[in-house]
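dude i think i finally got it to work??
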Amino acid sequence: MRVAQVTAYGGPEVLVTAVAPDPVAGPGEVVIAVSAVDTLFVETQIRTGWGREFFSVRPPYVVGSGVAGTVRAVGDGVAGAWLGRPVVAALGESGGAAELAVAPVDALVPVPDGVPATTAAALLHDGVTALALMTTTGIGAGERVLITGASGGMGTLLVQLAKARGAYVVGVARGDHKTALVRELGADAVIDGANREWPAHARETLGPAGADVVLDGVGGEVGLAAYELTAKGGRFSAHGAPTGGFAPVDAQQAADRGITLLGIADVQLSGKERVRLATEALEEAAAGRLRPVIGGTFPLEQAAEAHRTIEARSLLGKALLTV
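look at this
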């Protein structure tokens, strides 16, 4: 079978198409004929060698931490009723960018009728994390919510979910196309992050008290500027660091202001909880209440180009691989 494999740490050019043996389902496992592969920004960082203290994967490895497709074969102890069913499955750190992928049956989530494989793949990780963030931050009706990286795969979902909970949503995105998308998704106000004065504009929009909740998917200095816009007694959640690091927030200062600091560790979920939230995300999509934004799809052979595009931040929403 064909796979997209990282041969060494480095730039996108180390991601090449290779041939690997077809996998076989072991006890409690299934083989999935892959249709679409979720592709995350953090995977481009792992490819460069970043985060080795957090991630165990080492070259050579097949990229892709989650897939959508159809169950082709089942191992011992797996009900035959799974055969032929469209599913999504989180695979851990690698192994999805292939014609066939193995997943434990406990990780499978059935895809509702009418939901395309690309939509299902796009919600597999970002949908789960976005729903978890709604719970950990406790966003409620009437609260003012600031979302950085609002035009990204995660940010676009957070805008929709926060609005559905009755919040006043202020999104930060860069450039006319991205700000227009965030506005289309329902944000009450959109700030162009390409403007160096964006924090002042956001403060004016939020009001003197600031944001009750900040959802920071960018990190670095952008995240720190967003933190400064958090109201006293508010909640600041840092769930993304495409800049290479999370916002360098002073924990004591936050405590002095009564701000609750939340991070990616607060949305590290059990496998069972991930399945539950993925099911909820897919049901919301099937009902037309949640729409992932897919900015580009790339065939398996163009996995390197997908990574280049993600790193360039030139897409609206997500990039996916298709098989």
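The mean pLDDT is 96.
im so relieved honestly
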